[in-house]
Records
---
Amino acid sequence: MTRKITVAVVGATGQVGAVMLDFLAQSEVNADSVRCFASARSAGKTVIYRGAEVTVEDLATADLNGIDIALFSAGGATSASYAPKFTAAGAVVIDNSSHWRLDPEVPLVVSEVNPYAIAGAKKGIIANPNCTTMAAMPPLRVLHDAYGLTRLKIATYQATSGSGVHGVAELAGQLTELVKSGRIADLVRDGQAIPHAQPEVYAAAIAANVVPVAGGFVDDGSLETDEEQKLRNESRKILEIPELLVAGTCVRVPVFTGHSLVVHAEFERTVDVAEAQELLAKAPGVELCDMPNPRDAAGKNPSFVGRVRHDQSVPDGKGLVFFIANDNLRKGAALNAVQLAEIVARQLRA
Ligand code: A2P
């Protein structure tokens, strides 16, 4: 008889939770039952799984026994306190927050890149990487295997859905104000010609603008944001290159969904661009194309990669530049989490 599998979704009422439920419904996890958790605020509400209503349970008071796999997307504080309670009750936790990502006993896994790392989940917790980092890992894996990655310089163009529903609402509200004003073209001569309500989510207007800060500043004297440090620390861990040199600037742009990155990568060996393109075309999780862009990436699964060429600032052809666009809610969060759950479910049923 095949083993029955119960899956929990923690944060089921949230933006990523909803997408996880959709992916779970279509996945090879083939859950025999699904339980949904959120805070007391949402307990008793219902969410839809495979066309049926599932009542949301209050995480703080629920009985956690009988759960095999728990998908968490309810913020770092919730993961910090509840992931150990789920593992103690027998579940494998797959966590979307950043809380466990750098714990040496918690593997940080991209399903196509380092699925074997799941075997090292000593605490029963597997971490899902940061959305921006995740987008870059499938192309960088094959390039590293071929040429030996030594340094990354990255600029990101991050969508508002990466900062949650409030970021999306702020962009939508400001865009509506601009259109309603009937004089958008006035912005050509004066960026303040059409005033907005005081921004709440971003440090400056996000519509018809870019904001050169994504994430929060880290209080360590580096003047970097946590997003920029995640790019460094998580790339090193996933690609298993502890000495990898990484610097990034993470920028918020007026896009709803779809994070983009310009990657300048340097290698130990000279890169043949045509060969690199062939490797990228065959790489799992990558779609090589002429014009990767977030509007085309939103709603799709791969990391779209294009504009691949030598970095002319790096001697001996050892540098490559390329552009990536990827759906930050899908592969960047919910899809990878469910793909990890598929691997765990296969292991449980084996
Ligand atoms: P709730 O609906 O009860 O607030 P988003 O990232 O879209 O804001 O969603 C966050 C998700 O995490 C929601 O499902 C939210 O539930 C859940 N959540 C937030 N804080 C807690 C908590 N302390 N305990 C359980 N679930 C939480």
---
Amino acid sequence: MKRPIAYIAGTGYAVPRRAVTNDDLAKNGLDTNDAWIRDRTGIGQRYVSDPDETLTHLSAAASRIAMADAGVSAGEIDVIVLGTATPDHLLPATAVEVQAALGAGRAMAFDLGAACSGWLYSAQVAEGLIATGMAKTVLVIGAEVLSTIVDWTDRNTCVLFGDGAGATIIRSVKTLPKGDTRERGILSSYGRSDGNLYDLLWRPAGGVAEPFSDKVYEERRQYVRMEGREVFKHAVRSMADATDRALDMAKLTPADIDLVIPHQANMRIIEATAKHAGIDMSRFFVNVERFGNTSAASIPIALADARSQGLVPEGTLVLFAAFGAGFTWGSLIVRF
Ligand code: UT7
């Protein structure tokens, strides 16, 4: 097993004030019902931002909690990486607005686009920056305000997603006391992408290739479109690859893993991942019922939620696995 270079020193999350239940969606005229959504996805409600609850606002709120948890001040942060598909502005990156909100004056700040794998890829970038000695303390955020880019008239997609932010402080591993063999930190890290699958889950218009226009608005091409069944198939396949590879790279077996924190997209995808990995569902942390799929925010929200429930005591071995639009996927194994 490789010697860890970086560890997760603090976590936090923030969600909008307003929870929207499945019944609320049906009451507001969408042709859907609580039973269908629960049965196909496991989702019961999601949080939806009001205009003052911007990506910067949610990200900064989650970050302050993670910083307090890690005992890190704003001035100690070397880098801020924000995984998101829903920046507040097209230019500049939202990470710089978060930097300003936190007063993290020394930090280099940038956004990372990897859809639902956004936090996981960002954590891998943090580990790399720490390994080169460029950074000691990195604020890694996954955050989304997906409610602004989903088509609220499309029942195939809008019921799935939610807003929120999760933050983690990733720091370089301190020299351990002699004889301490319980090394904490990132033990293995795996990531892949397949751009041939880019239009299975995408926003066709609003970028440079197809700028906003009357036609775009008429055809609602500024909103997320998804081939649900195809995404499902690729998700199951990539989550299986992600779990296998992370275990191989860390020279661990499924029996070694205390807790799996998967991307919270859908209960059925999580169950298929558990079956493939041979890890009982009782060792999977799932909170998709309360938050829906918050894309890049889902894993760091789940981690902060699990820690607040006392489920990640010191020494816990956690496997994280994510997949998302792109297609992107990857995994991390971390000893807390
Ligand atoms: O981070 C990645 C995010 N994406 C995902 O995780 C999505 C992966 N895909 C899935 O989880 C599933 O494909 C869905 C949950 C999106 C859909 O489930 P499905 O079993 O693949 O359903 P389907 O799309 O084949 O649709 C079955 C039926 C259709 O009706 P007809 O044509 O059979 O009459 C849909 O129109 O269900 C209908 N339907 C709905 N009914 C009630 C689709 N959405 C809804 C809805 N409420 N919200």
